[in-house]
Amino acid sequence: MDPIDRAIINGLQEGLAVCERPYLEAAQRLGLNEDELLARLARMLAEGVLTRIGPLYQIERMGGAFTLAALHAAPADYERVAQQVNALPQVAHNYAREHELNMWFVIATETPTEIAGVIDTIEQQTGCSVFNFPKSREYFVELKLKA
Q1: Alpha helices in 13-60 (DSSP H)
Q2: What are 132's strand-pairing partners?
Q3: For FRET with 131, which of 19, 52, 90, 103 sits at 20 to 30 Å CA-CA?
Q4: Are 41 and 8 in contact (CB under 8 A)?
Q5: How many angstroms separate the CA atoms of 109 and 83, rounded?
Q6: How confident is the model at residue 20 (pLDDT cuts 50, 70, 90)?
Q7: Three-class DSSP category at 139
Q8: What is the arrangement of strands in the sheet containing 91-96, beginning at the earlier edge strand?
Q9: Shortest CA distance to 117 belongs to which of 125, 102, 95?
Q10: pLDDT of 147 strictly over 70
Q11: Which residue did the predictor score with more confidence, 58 or 143?
Q12: 124 φ/ψ angles, rounded to the nearest 5 degrees
C-alpha cells in the first residue's frame, strides 16, 4: 500500500456521502478523481487488502439481532460443516480459527427470537454443538493508517 491507499482507507472510514455519486464526492475530498479511487478500491479488494466496502448497521435499532457463534468441527468434516453453516442466509461471515472452537461465524436475523432457531438448525444439520456469544457491549474500532 502506498500513501494514497492509506489515505483512501482512512478517509472512507469517515463515511460516504448519501448522494447520487458518493465515490465522486469521496474522491474529491481525497484529492483524487473518481476513476482513480474506484480503480484503487477494486485493486485493494482483488488483492485482499480490503474484504468489503459498505455500511455498518446497528441492526438492533431496526428490530433485528446478531450474535457471534462458534463450534468445533472435526478436521475431516470441517469443509462439510462450513458449507452447511455458510448455506444459511442468516450467516453473515465465517472464520476458521486455530482453537478448540475452530469455526466462528456471525448470525444476523430480522428479530432477536430467530437467533435460537438458527442455532438449532445448525446443530441439527451439522451434528455440532454451537456456542452463542451475544454482544454485551458496543465498541467502535477504527483503523487509521499512517500516510
Answers
A1: 22-30, 34-47
A2: 69
A3: 52
A4: yes
A5: 19
A6: very high
A7: coil
A8: 91-96, 103-109, 65-71, 130-133
A9: 125
A10: no
A11: 58
A12: -65, -45
pTM: 0.67
For residues 11 and 22, what is the distance between their CA atoms, to the nearest angstrom? Answer: 13
* Rounded distance between C-alpha atoms, residue 9 and residue 40, angstroms: 10
Which amino acid, one-letter code, is at 59? I
Q: Give the other-Cβ count within 10 Å of 33's Cβ.
A: 12
The amino acid that residue 65 corresponds to is: A
Cell match 493508517: residue? 145
Q: What grid cell was written down for 36? A: 482513480
Per DSSP (E only), the strands in 3-109 are: 65-71, 91-96, 103-109
Phi-psi region of 81 (alpha: psi -120 to 50; beta: other; left: phi over 0): alpha
- As given in the structure block, the three cell numbers for residue 44 are 485493494
